[in-house]
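Now for today's protein.

===
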Amino acid sequence: MPATDDSLLIALAQRGSLDASAELFERYWPVAWQAAYAVTGNATRADDAAQDAIQRAFGALDTFELGRPFAPWLRRIAANRAIDELRRDARLVELDSDAPRLAAIAPDSVDTPAGLAALVAALP
């Protein structure tokens, strides 16, 4: 019965057992990674999101309700972390396409606060 095994491992991990935590990690890393990859479609981003999800899940293990399935809980955390990764990336702006326009504003004025403010205001 894997659920019983999981409940026992979770209870032991909640009490600080490193062996139980390691076993949970080994069992559920693929679950976290697959959930993150399904959202991001990128192995590197999935690695980052899954690592963050594992850290968060294990950090919140004391709040996990024994007897509930662990995989869906971890899967949801991983998917949320992957969504956060994509949102973070969406806020990044590539400056290469705007570089000529920004350089034309006043390349030497970056040394002054007003010049820097003008460059920042020109960003998309």
The two ends are 56 Å apart (CA to CA). The longest helix spans residues 18-40.
